[in-house]
Amino acid sequence: MLRPPPVQAGPSIKEAAAALRQKRELAEQARLGVAPARLEDLRSLSLFSGHDVLSVVVLEERLRALQDEPRPALREWVQGSLTLVRTITSRDVCLHLSVLTQVERAARQARLAVPLMRAVTEREAAVLVFEGVIARVKAAKVVRRGQRVWSVTLDGAAYRLDARTGEVLGTAFTPVGLHVHRHSM
Fold first, then answer.
1. How far apart, in whole angstroms, are the C-alpha atoms of residue 19 and residue 185?
2. Which of these, 132, 48, 39, 45, lies nearest to 89 by C-alpha position?
C-alpha cells in the first residue's frame, strides 16, 4: 500500500506576514532608488523640480562644461546648480531641460558672438546683446562708471549694470540677458 508523502508544515501566519512585509519593504526601497530625485530650487531661474528626467551623471557633466564660462552670473548659477546636484542620492533627477538647454545655448552664442570690429574707447563698454539665434558685441556709451554700478546707454535705452557681474541691475538672471562683455570688465 502506497502512503502519501508526509505533509510538511508551512510557515506560520506570523512568519508568512513577516516575509511578505520584508518583500514589500525591499520593493519600496528598490522603487525609491530608481525614482528620480525632486529638488526644491528657489532661484529665479529654477533648474530643478521640472517634469523632465535626466541622469545625475549626465547633468553634472553638462554643468561642469559651463563652469569656466567668463560670465560671472552664469558661473554662479552653475555653481549653485552643482551644489544642489551633490545632494542627490538617486541616479536620476527631475529638472527643466529647457532651462539647461537655454543656458548652454546662451553660453555657446556668447563664445561665438559677432565681434564689435573696433576697439572700445574709454567712454564705452562692450556689451553682449542676444538677437535671436546670434549674440553680438555692441559698444554702449558709459555715462558713469562707479565701483558698484555702471550706467550705460545703448541704442537710446539706459541701463544700470552691476560692476562686479556686468548684469543689468534689478532683473533676475537670464541666460540671454544683456551684460558687459568679459573684455570690458
1. 66
2. 39
Tell me if residue 57 falls in helix, strand or coil: helix
Q: How far apart are CA 85 and CA 24, in angstroms?
A: 29
Best CA proximity match to 152, nearest among 176, 181, 173: 181
Q: Considering just the CA atoms, what is the radius of gyration of the chain in Å?
A: 28
| Residue 158 β-bridge partners | 153
For residue 16, the model assigns a pLDDT of 73
Q: Could you give the CA distance from residue 89 to residue 169 in angstroms, rounded to a whole number?
A: 36
φ/ψ of residue 79, rounded to 5: -60, -40
Copy the grid coordinates of residue 125. 563698454
Q: What is the pLDDT of residues 9-68, one digit of tens each?
A: 566 777 777 767 766 655 665 565 568 999 999 999 999 989 999 999 999 999 999 999
Q: Read off the pLDDT of residues 140-152 as tens digits, 9 standing for 90 and up.
A: 999 999 999 999 9
